[in-house]
Amino acid sequence: MLASCRSMKGSHLFLCLFFMSCWLSLMLTAGNKIFHFGPCRISMSMTEIRSGFTAIKANIQARDPIRTLSILSYPHSLHKVKSSDRCCITHHLFDFYVDKVFKHCKTEDSYVNRKISSIANSFLSVKRKLEQCHEENKCLCGEESTEKFKQILANYEGLNVTSAAIKSLGELDILLDWMEKSH
């Protein structure tokens, strides 16, 4: 394609470069979806996050020593969240995963660590977008979302840091499923 652009002159070259940049932009954002969290709209690549998590899910869940407790599935943690509270709880959860979970999920397996890092980078990008919504007062926190997040934190803090981080990462599919249902 670039070779054919070289043979063009003037405005044809401009058009060729314009179309190449459009094509490149489309390729970079092809896996992105727009998620609606209340009034906040966030573009993210759920496919990239899901494929990274799927690649390490069995490994991470096998490392979870506590099978009787769930951090995200505690009764009603993410169920029946009002549309107006989705932005707030999502904002809190992305902060939670970036600031607590990913920092304490290290394994001796470099492949797993790279996948965790990739997921963490995707979460950091979304976290920044959610912070912008929060700063623009589009992401208001009601009592219900605040209470639900406090319960998630209590579940997390009831375990030692490493076990809690591994368990939270192993439950990432719960969060991803919930986000896609609210999509």
Question: Can you walk me through this structure?
Answer:
The chain is mainly α and 183 residues long. The protein folds into 2 domains: 1-30, no CATH class; 31-182, Up-down Bundle (Growth Hormone, Chain: A), CATH 1.20.1250. The protein has helices at 2-6, 11-29, 46-62, 83-101, 110-135, 143-157, 161-170, 172-182, and strands at residues 33-37, 40-44. The chain has a two-stranded antiparallel sheet with strand order 1-2. The radius of gyration is 20 Å and the shape is globular.
Summarize the structure.
This protein has helices at about 1-5, 10-30, 45-60, 85-100, 110-135, 145-155, 160-170, 170-180; strands at about 35, 40-45. It is mainly alpha-helical. It has 2 domains: about 1-30, no CATH class; about 30-180, Up-down Bundle (Growth Hormone, Chain: A), CATH 1.20.1250.
How would the blueprint of this fold be written?
Elements: H1 2-6, H2 11-29, E1 33-37, E2 40-44, H3 46-62, H4 83-101, H5 110-135, H6 143-157, H7 161-170, H8 172-182
Antiparallel strand pairs: 1-2
Helix pairs in contact: 3-5, 3-7, 4-5, 4-6
